[in-house]
Prior knowledge:
Two copies of one chain form a homodimer. Chain A is α/β, with parallel strands linked by helices. Chain A contains 15 helices and 14 strands. In chain A, the strands form four sheets. The first copy, chain A, has a seven-stranded parallel β-sheet, with helices on both faces. In chain A, strands 9-11-13 form a three-stranded mixed β-sheet. In chain A, strands 2-3 form a two-stranded antiparallel ribbon. In chain A, helix 5 (89-110) packs parallel to helix 6 (148-165). Chain A is globular. The mean pLDDT of chain A is 95. Chains A and B meet through helix 6 of A and helix 6 of B.
Amino acid sequence: MKLLITGGAGFIGARLARTLLARGTLAGRPIDRLVLADQFAPPSDLLADVRVRGLTGALLDHGAGIAAARFDGVFHLASAVSGECELDFDLGMRSNLDSTRTLLDALRAAGNMPRVVFSSSVAVFGPDPGKPLPPVVADDTLPAPQTSYGTQKLMCEVLIADMTRKGFIDGRSARLMTVTVRPGRPNAAASSFFSGVIREPLAGAEAICPVDAAVSHPVSSPARTIEALIRVYEASRDELNGRLALNLPSLNVTVQQMLDALAAVAGPQVRALVKFQRDERIAGIVANWPKGASAARASALGLMPDSSFEDIIRQYIADCRAQPDAHLTLKGLTR
Amino acid sequence: MKLLITGGAGFIGARLARTLLARGTLAGRPIDRLVLADQFAPPSDLLADVRVRGLTGALLDHGAGIAAARFDGVFHLASAVSGECELDFDLGMRSNLDSTRTLLDALRAAGNMPRVVFSSSVAVFGPDPGKPLPPVVADDTLPAPQTSYGTQKLMCEVLIADMTRKGFIDGRSARLMTVTVRPGRPNAAASSFFSGVIREPLAGAEAICPVDAAVSHPVSSPARTIEALIRVYEASRDELNGRLALNLPSLNVTVQQMLDALAAVAGPQVRALVKFQRDERIAGIVANWPKGASAARASALGLMPDSSFEDIIRQYIADCRAQPDAHLTLKGLTR
Lengths: 335, 335
């Protein structure tokens, strides 16, 4: 089978690609071709696999090529992140809505009703001015996004449901929780600090936490997120049983619990590298995000959240140790 | 003040225009200019008013002009109807989503944060495959459109909420119920028969009802609908108290009750002109529509549904009698 991952050179995309290549099959069929579309080239380890091709450039420019390729399945992960969408409305509309339409129109034009997993987001939820969010948002909580990013994700969810109803594609929307711990540099996502406050201290660097320690949020490890994306892809329409958007499992934690876990796993001197310095812009965005989420429909597919934030940190440390630059990413770790 | 009505030459748009011109003011300000944008020219009685201008052509082509005009307020009623959107997916996306984006981008470019009332629809609601609709859909029922029309309306609702949050416009989305009795010819809306089964017999012609008599649906008279659009325009953000989309009031009636009302108002010989002949395409669309709606938030604005379907029919008859061609539209009426 022939698969496409948009955002395939990004953190989740590349990790999903590695997992799929190692499995060798998806939904019972061998993976013969895996195209990684992104604005930059995929990591060299992926390009070294004979099954992999890179497709570099803006998704908006690749509609005809994607239609002609007739993919059997797509993971649509490409997205501008919440912070940049909030700063530049037009960029968000173009990157998240128009690009998705280009992709979906191309998949429809291909005529083979490909399966599509769209990475939606917990950011579709938000409080009404007149009505606070429930403490835990469920699969069927009424979305009310309070960011342009969440708005664009919700618009795509609705469009994918309709195009699936029409028989153009076989789509489903997996609402990703905040994935942590992300490696690399901070990005423009308002949620970037949820990784930064763990990653930077482990690397021996100071980290700024822009929100209060009491802030609670639903998070998921990269491994659990990848596992969930694949399971949602492999689910039959009957298993999805209705609505095509579902919450992925989350561990609902406070920043305080995250930092306590960091101290427990890496020691108090690492924990001490996190300073609190409130950023009103970030804090304002995060204040409108859910404090926790439930995932009954994902649970019915057998998907479970991470068991503890300590486990999430240990997973990150193990991932770093498997990389050649482990000494750099774990410079702060003395035990 | 300067107002724009898109779909301003259509049935609701022209009637709204007449009501606004007769009032002379909106939200306490005199109406100096009323632009009626539509694919065809407005009725001549409207063009005869010195305050009225027509803007003919596709909304998609008028972005720059609308931006330059700096409207104080907009009623955005222009839309492809449900039946045609279901037959031609691309037409619906272009007419209902792309045109709305062109309009909203133009209003944002004008820079004066105009007030916008968007005519959304009860068609945003629908049953999940796994979960039937509640008997009555409320303001905060989770939308799950089962038509492309409803999907496009929902996408616009969400976009308008975000552009309002950003301060680009001052938007609100009024979910219209099925407006009946519409004058004129049947159109491609799947709901067209809700008017046809009353209008055609009153004109002495046979009418086909494509669904069972037991089908229940939320309806509203033209007069109540116009009244509600104006009230939603005039509502302050505080009065809206949260979510910017709300259900307009409806009378929830079965086709049987509609026909009983027709017999009561116009006599059994008029009622006898309605024949049942099931149309699977129409019946399939209607089966996924709500059987009734509630409108708590509209009610808090003082808006009430029609008191009975008899009243709706009497309103239609009175409207016809006020027109020069009353003898044609009421040819079936012998009392």
